[in-house]
Amino acid sequence: MDEKKTVLIVEDEKSIVDIVRFNLEKEGYAVLTAYDGEAGLAAARQKKPDLILLDVMLPKMIGFDVCKLLREEGDNVPVIILTAREEEADKVLGLEIGADDYITKPFSMRELMARVKANIRRTAMQQAQENTAAVPAAGGLTIDPENYQVSKHGKPIALTQREYELLTFLAGHPGKVYSRIDLMEQVWNYDYVGDDVRTVDVTVRRLREKIEDDPANPALILTRRGVGYYFAGQ
Ligand code: CA
Q1: Is the pLDDT of residue 181 over 90?
Q2: Contacts of 30 (CB under 8 A, 6+ apart)
Q3: Band (50; pLDDT cuts 50, 70, 90)
């Protein structure tokens, strides 16, 4: 690793912060911590971490609002939401407001470290570069892989890292249908896929809202019913 990657932990349970910090440092990451939502937001703005682990139930400002504000400011830092097991709805809500991923408490350190690794920018950017080699322009869409910038009819579109990767992956293989499990493996870098395929659906929906002229009748990212998703292209 050329340069240490920085992970910001925003979590009010000190015991969780301590053990996650210990494990991240052991893996070679630099770690920042914040114990409430406002402090987390401030740290994200000032220190520009490479990834944020974000608890939902936080003092002063809930995790969803922290994530939402960062996205509104155009900050595309990878965000993993830490959610409690009973809060099923939180998973989808977290993804809809722009988080990249979620992990359910209580989580194993092994699983958390795998998620951090899969979501961190270094891996993602390398992958994005590989995938953008043959990206076509279609439907007024242009992809500039050097600047990770996507435009629609000349207007820049703010995509999260995952949205960008999903788009460039599909656009790099126009016409080829990928199942949600394929996409979890190829775009999310996950080896194990459980119930998490819903992550793909939510990300596709968010992406369509940003790049399609009519998100309800998509012309770029299409659904092959019962099979998966594909990019229309040429
Ligand atoms: Ca909490």
Answers
A1: no
A2: 4, 5, 6, 7
A3: very high
Helix (H, G, I), strand (E, B) or coil at 173: coil
Question: Separation of 49 CA from ligand 1 center, angstroms?
Answer: 20
Centre of ligand 1 to C-alpha 180, Å, is: 31
Distance 97 CA to ligand 1 centre (A): 19
Q: Are the CB atoms for 106 and 125 separated by under 8 Å? A: no
User: What's the 87 CA to ligand 1 centre distance in angstroms?
Assistant: 12
Q: How far apart are CA 60 and CA 43, in angstroms?
A: 14
| Burial of 159: CB neighbours in 10 Å, binned 0-12, 13-18, 19+ | buried
pTM of the model: 0.67
Which residue type is seen at 33? T
Is 150 strand, coil or helix? Answer: strand
